[in-house]
Amino acid sequence: MTGFRPFESTESAAPIITRLVAGVLRGKPERGFEFAAWERLGLRLLNLLPPAVARWAVRWHFSRTSLMPSNARLLAEDELAAQRLRDYKGVEGKFPVVVVGSALAGAAAHLAALLRGPFLPQPFILGMRGGSPDDDLTSHLALATSVAREILDRNQNLKAIAHFDPIHDGWLTRTVTHLRLKLVGLPRAYEAFLLERLEPGGTILYLDCGSQWLHFPISERLSCQIGGWGGIPADEYISGSERIDRFLQATGSAHRGGWRVPGIEAHWAPESEWGSDSGLDEALGRFAEKNGYRFVRLHFPHPHDYSRLAFRAHRALFDQIGQEVQGIVVETFTQYDPYIVLRAGLLPLWLVFNTIDSLEFMQDVLAEVSVDHPLYFSGLSTLSRTPDMVPWETWAAAFEGRSWVNIGAGPRRYPEDMVALFNWSRRLENHVPGETEVELPSLPLEDFLRLLPDVAE
Fold this sequence. Notes:
Layout: H1 13-26, H2 37-46, H3 51-65, H4 69-72, H5 77-85, E1 95-101, H6 105-115, E2 119-121, E3 123-129, H7 137-154, E4 158-164, H8 170-173, E5 176-183, H9 188-197, E6 198-209, E7 212-219, E8 222-226, H10 234-239, H11 242-250, E9 267-270, H12 280-291, E10 294-300, H13 303-321, E11 327-332, H14 338-344, E12 346-351, H15 356-366, E13 375-377, H16 392-398, E14 404-406, H17 420-431, H18 445-449
Parallel strand pairs: 1-2, 1-6, 4-8, 6-10, 11-12, 11-13, 13-14
Antiparallel strand pairs: 3-5, 4-5, 7-8, 7-9
Helix pairs in contact: 1-6, 5-9, 6-13, 6-14
């Protein structure tokens, strides 16, 4: 315990998942993003200005609110884990299942909510002041590795990845350095929570996502990942390409030719954001055996595989309780809401990002269901027009023949619609009216596990 908090941004994947899942467990809806009235007014005003102004304003905000490196160096693994557990304060009773592992955003949140169990994340992210104004890797790596070494020296259950994505996060990496941390052992805070809140003989369901990316290994528990999930391959970030150079030129960057860590050969390892690293799974298995719990590993190679599972599991739930599906909601990245989904009888189709690979996955899943279901699309606000981004017109064309409503970033401001950051779920609620706080349905674990052989394709 360090006495300093918070470490992790409340807008990161893990805090959003635990906050939303805790809301389902309490029977009270929560928001993925919490904005004060003055912040909502500021975002509305930014929508009236050119997108470049919005990027500057958000970059300035993060440059002032991100974590000071001097504080990041004080991090303790148990306090990091305990911060997520505090989201479950006020949730009563014990649970038949606790979901642990990859923080797969909407997919993880929907699975935990459906099974009515808490979610405990393996990964965390620190956004630290001080970025790479010239899109060069050197300054990012110097800060990230310096902080990481101090953290790892004192926290044996953590590994660290210096994550540098100058394409998808290019507007942000110029002022903020991202350091991802993953549990490779079981922290005491998680042990205590499981012993207190998991029913005798209950199940630890481990989300073991096999997504891989090229890493530059720096030390035993420290590596550097350049780029991130989307429609640009890992090796293209390293070698560079004409389309990346065109993107950099359009954003005013002088950098050309890709990025690499000099003197180190890249190799494949678990992707920093979505992939699972070994160690925590082994510790959980030993813990389960010692304490009479069941350990179930849910392994798929791609984060979208878990989204497909959540989609089919909700369909199985509604079939089981005799509820007609009221529609499909296409969610993206941080825009997801398990409470509304269960309350309104919707099928959740969560997408990793607004890139071409997500479009292809969405089209594949939509082919499974009737075109008669209403569809609600949460166009994502990213502030980045990346080479792999799907244009608005292409999204719209993918919904031809369906009755659909856009609830996220609209065609005029996509992907820079600041109001959609806080308004998309309210727009969804307006289209699926009903009681706000109701008893939500859940799927028994054994019925859920019977779905597994039919998921990965």
